[in-house]
Design goal:
With 213 residues, the protein is of the alpha+beta class. It has a single domain, classed as NADH Oxidase. Helices cover 44% and strands 12% of the residues. Strands 1, 2, 3, 4 and 5 form a 5-stranded antiparallel beta sheet that branches. The radius of gyration is 19 Å and the shape is globular. The model has no long low-confidence stretch (mean pLDDT 88).
Length: 213
């Protein structure tokens, strides 16, 4: 698949077929994802690949507790917005079937000396998350290229201490998101985004010469 096509049609696909995804398919995608850049070439990333039903059930329990807290807010916001209701429906399906999903990939990052408090927390945060999210996007694009459904989620790991305990993560290893992966039941397709002129600023914020008048 041409790169541009993958980028233009890669979207969050949450409705998944429930049959397993083989390691022969998944591991090459994980390997390719790690061709992404990372701060100072530290490569302190780790992937937790969760397939065990008991582990998935524990994570599902944490997720549903968070979902019950957060989802009513989303539903209220979407009450009079048909488009937004269509957006949240696949998430509801996934919450109901979470422990049945074929594989959960949890990208993590191991903190090093440069991520310790320095009085300039933005430095640690930017190098920390900037060292793992490029690999996450590579993984999402790889899934798109082979027809796997995938979506980047953070809600399931909001309660980090619980997730650490379930996965046996050391304190210096932090989960940054969770990506359910399976053969796509939902469709990929063109995504709608704001016009480029609305988000590009030239030299200073607020100078937007590319807006179409």
């Amino acid at each position: 698949m041409p790169m541009e096509e993958a980028m233009r049609t890669q979207r969050a696909v949450r409705r998944l077929h429930l049959e397993p995804v083989s390691h022969e398919v998944l591991l090459p995608l994980l390997e390719l994802s790690l061709k992404a850049p990372t701060s100072s070439d530290s490569q302190d990333w780790h992937y937790l690949v969760v397939e065990d039903p008991a582990q998935k059930a524990k994570l599902a329990k944490v997720y549903r507790r968070l979902y019950r807290l957060f989802n009513p807010i989303v539903e209220r916001q979407a009450r009079n917005d048909e488009k937004q209701r269509r957006v949240i429906a696949p998430g509801q399906w996934q919450a109901e079937h979470f422990e049945e999903l074929p594989v959960l990939v949890i990208p993590c990052y191991r903190r090093g000396l440069k991520h310790r408090p320095t009085g300039r927390p933005q430095i640690a945060v930017s190098s920390f998350y900037g060292s793992v999210y490029p690999a996450v996007q590579n993984l999402l694009l790889g899934c798109r290229a082979v027809g796997l459904g995938a979506s980047l989620q953070t809600l399931p790991i909001w309660w980090v201490p619980s997730v650490r305990k379930i996965l046996g993560l050391p304190r210096n290893v932090t989960p940054v998101c969770l990506i359910p992966i399976g053969w796509a039941k939902g469709r990929y397709g063109p995504t709608e985004r704001r016009p480029i002129g609305e988000v590009v600023h030239l030299d200073r914020y607020g100078n937007q010469p590319f807006i179409r008048r």
